[in-house]
Design goal:
- The chain is of the alpha/beta class.
- The chain has eleven helices and nine strands.
- The strands form two sheets. It has a seven-stranded mixed beta sheet, with helices on both faces.
- A hairpin with a 3-residue loop joins strand 2 and strand 3.
- The termini are far apart.
- The chain binds zinc ion.
Length: 290
């Protein structure tokens, strides 16, 4: 009798508990589906963020000031300022789906080989190194675009000694050339520079990059007037917009291919080649259409 009563009590408890159990199961299901939706949304966001990754390298930094313009303006300050503006433009437009990483965010020392290594670490799609220059041509208002270059002897030698780090960029030169061409196109379309030079040179800090990699020398300051221009916020925002145009065009190239025809109508003065050779070595030369 006692045994039966125990069972009866248990049965009553179970019956009373059924609505609560159903509610709990329902809640649990809702919670699970909500969690799933949240996880999916988070993943979607991650995927969106991961659509493209651009690493911007503000040239120089810390003890390395780069070129000094006038008495106080250092190239390292300009490169960081322009890199931040480009980052701000991209971050303010989520539809671009470009994640931006800066190799340095303050005035700090950063070895040359660390710069491409940071881009490789982030598995970046694009690596853009920003520099400014100073030449002795008062009328020269030009943008220089560089991709890495290897001589056949160098490639052979690096392969022989299994120098894989230095060979990385050699596998991406076609993409780099295309990336550079799109930037060149954006610079020409802007009309902001009297001249655009697309060059290739044995640039050390590009050679470790395992993705499309370009260096720009975004303006020159041979005179006081140009220094004021380089320093102005308006000019830097204009430069940032031009670079962004080149980046977006490159990333959307499959949709835009039919509208784009790279131009190489400008031939730089012979003096530029000589200056380049002094700066980057004898391998510097005008990039050819391929
Ligand atoms: Zn520089």
């Amino acid at each position: 009798m006692i045994f039966r009563k125990k069972h009866l009590n248990f049965l009553i408890i179970c019956i009373l508990a059924i609505p609560a159990l159903i509610e709990a199961a329902s809640l649990s299901r809702r919670s699970f589906s909500q969690d799933l939706a949240a996880a999916q949304a988070a993943q979607d966001t991650d995927q969106q963020q991961a659509s493209f990754c651009l690493v911007i390298d503000p040239g120089h930094g810390g003890k390395d000031s780069g070129v000094l313009f006038g008495a106080t303006l250092a190239e390292k300050t300009l490169t960081l300022s322009l890199a931040r503006k480009l980052q701000e433009l991209i971050d303010s437009d989520p539809e671009l789906n470009i994640k931006v990483v800066l190799t340095r965010v303050e005035d700090q020392d950063l070895p040359l080989d660390r710069r491409a290594a940071i881009a490789n670490h982030h598995r970046a799609d694009l690596f853009l190194s920003i520099h400014f220059g100073s030449y002795l041509y008062p009328a020269l208002d030009s943008m220089q675009i560089f991709i890495a270059d290897y001589s056949s002897e160098e490639l052979e030698y690096l392969s022989m000694i299994n120098e894989s780090w230095s060979l990385m960029q050699s596998k991406h030169l076609a993409e780099s050339r295309e990336f550079g061409r799109y930037i060149e196109q954006a610079v020409r379309a802007s009309g902001a520079f009297a001249a655009v030079n697309f060059l290739k040179a044995p640039i050390y800090f590009l050679k470790g990059a395992s993705m499309a990699a370009v260096e720009v020398e975004a303006g020159f300051a041979p005179s006081e007037e140009n220094i004021n221009k380089l320093e102005s916020e308006d000019y830097q925002w204009q430069l940032a917009k031009i670079l962004l145009q080149g980046i977006v065009s490159f990333l959307n190239k499959d949709q835009e291919q039919s509208q784009f025809s790279p131009s190489s109508e400008f031939s730089p003065p012979a003096e530029i080649d000589r200056v380049r050779e002094n700066l980057y070595g004898q391998g510097t030369r005008q990039e050819q259409e391929q």
